[in-house]
Amino acid sequence: MNRLRRIVGGWLASFLTQEVEAAPALPVDLVALQALLRKADVILVEGNLRISAVIKYLTQSSWSHAVLYAGGGMCIEADVLQGVRRFPLSELAPYHLRVCRPISLTEADADIVVAHAQARLGAQYDLKHVADLARYMVPLPVPRAWRRRAIAVGSADPSRAICSTLVAEAFQAAHYPILPEIPSSVPPGAAAAKVREIYHIHDTGLFTPRDFDISPFFQIIKPDMPRIFDHHNLVWVD
Predict the structure, then answer these.
(1) Averaged pLDDT, 104-112
(2) Domain spans of the chain?
(3) Inter-residue contact 223 to 106 (CB < 8 Å)
(4) Residue 141 carries which DSSP code?
(5) Where are the alpha helices (DSSP H) in 17-126?
């Protein structure tokens, strides 16, 4: 049974990691990007794979993947086919990116974050998780309140990397928060549902790329922001 599951999971992983047509992304200036980045920055990626479309649908976000910048032009990610791996920043050149910078992280903290992620190198992606995501290639409506839980189905094995859990766990190793703690008093109505959802995230550890985007503890930086820009210098064609 386990062998059959690995075979089916491997086939699904290959299917879900095939590229599909995506919206065009502005070219990334890799020299400027590397000069901008700091160790332990989180890079959000708008992927162009089948699995990217599933994750963006379930999380209602533009971001389908989260990568940890390890310094020296190298990144760490949980790849569906290759597992947790190091790779050069240049591989992100074709994609639409956003940088999420932990606001109060010290250099010592950043070392802890990166070391934790590096210790997971070689860990495999949860293939049960891949099988569950494959179900959502079928364009059936999933109620908003169930979407994050849909990602969690079948992915209880903590020895395998899933979604943005690898990056979130690395920050938790340095006692750096991703989302705020829950207040002791739960408000009524629709707000209560949002609080329950955050409880669910904390309880399962199932963080998604969107959580870094909305986190109050991370600064959002566009890769080209350091450039000097003055619209008065633009030459317009009549």
Answers:
(1) 97
(2) 2-226
(3) no
(4) -
(5) 30-36, 50-59, 107-119
Instruction: Say which residues have a Cβ less than 8 Å from residue 107's Cβ, sequence separation at least 6.
Output: 39
Phi, psi of 104 (to 5 degrees): -115, 20
Model-level pTM?
0.74
How many other C-beta atoms are found inside a 10 Å radius of the C-beta of residue 92?
Answer: 21
Half-sphere exposure of 4 (CA within 13 A, CB side): 1
**How many residues can be counted in the chain?**
238
The phi, psi pair for 151, rounded to 5°, reads -65, -30
Rounded to a whole number of angstroms, the distance between the first and last alpha carbons of the chain is 68
Q: What angle in degrees, to the nearest 10, is found between the helix axes of 144-152 and 190-204?
A: 10
Q: What is the pLDDT of residue 62?
A: 79
Closest CA to 171 of 124, 207, 126: 207
Q: How many whole angstroms separate alpha carbon 222 and alpha carbon 16? A: 28
User: Which residues, 6 or more positions from 188, have their beta carbon under 8 angstroms from its beta carbon?
Assistant: none
DSSP 41: -
pLDDT at 163: 60
Sign of dihedral through CA atoms 83, 85, 45, 177? positive
- Provide the 10 A C-beta neighbour count for residue 168: 23
Structure-token match 């550890």, residue found: 205
Which pLDDT score, from 0 to 100, does residue 14 have?
62
Other Cβ atoms less than 10 A from the Cβ of 222: the count is: 12
Grouping H, G, I as helix, E, B as strand and the rest as coil, residue 165 is helix
d(CA 2, CA 26): 43
> Scanning the structure block, which residue is given the tokens 């976000």?
61
Residues 2-226: name the CATH superfamily.
endopeptidase domain like (from Nostoc punctiforme) (3.90.1720.10)
